[in-house]
Amino acid sequence: MKLDCKHVWEHISEYIDKTIDAELREDIERHLEHCEICSAILDSTRNILVLTADDRTFELPVGYSKRLHERLEKELESSEKDPKKE
Amino acid sequence: MRMTETNEAGLIARILGGEKELFHELIRPYERMVYLTLFSIVRNEADAEDGAQEAMINAYRHLKSFRGDAKFSTWLTTIAINEGRKRLRKAKTAAEESIEEEAEGHEGDYTPAPLTDWREIPLEALERKEIREALRGAVAELPDIYRQVFTLRDLEELNVEETAQALGINANVVKVRLHRARILLQKRLVPFLRTTAPSRRWFFGRA
Lengths: 86, 207
What we know:
The complex is a heterodimer of chains A (86) and B (207).
Chain A: H1 5-10, H2 12-17, H3 22-34, H4 36-53, H5 64-78
Chain B: H1 5-16, H2 22-27, H3 31-42, H4 45-61, H5 72-91, H6 94-105, H7 129-141, H8 144-155, H9 160-167, H10 171-196, H11 200-206
Helix pairs in contact in B: 3-4, 3-5, 3-8, 4-5, 5-9, 7-10, 8-10, 9-10
């Protein structure tokens, strides 16, 4: 089946996640071969996901882990031996 | 590196058996996940950190009720989401709640922004700090329901089923919201990249 651009856009997310059926996937791939606009949209969306998964993009507050474990330690100390009794 | 589920089950059994210090070890792989989950809901660093601590303490106190029918990470995410929602309810006005509900059924424009020059943007551009900032800003501005799904799926890398379970929605809703979130981010970031990507001349000028 010949796809138009709009149809490809509707499936971009599933295409990236590889959750579409093989036939549609092939149709999209054929479309991408000759459509620069859709290829660029796909690349840009993928790059955003790469950037999102990069630990430097969403950083934790400095000292977060230390403070977390200190607070947990207080909780553990004050709790009974068995957490269920809390 | 995440521990295998078997290791976790063993750790949980030992913690419940009295070796409570092992709780530190159990949650260490999930510190980031819990914080980001909280942050996606409360959108404030201090509140997210405090909420993450509360969520971890709650997980410890209720560890006995963890049955192992869900993954520990999903169970912990659910606790984090509940903590975030609790905080939000306290802070939120009724007016804001209704805006959120509107977004749920909103038939917005979820078509991506066309661009022709992305391939000309060198990969190094992705290393630039401003792009990270722009992405953080764009994620923060997503409607709540999209931001939460996006955070769990693309930031914390939970799968569709785990995300659905943690948020209490069905898998198809996860897919629709994720698609819209990604497209909204693409639309937001493309113009940014266009206006801030160094031109070739500038690039060579610096070299």
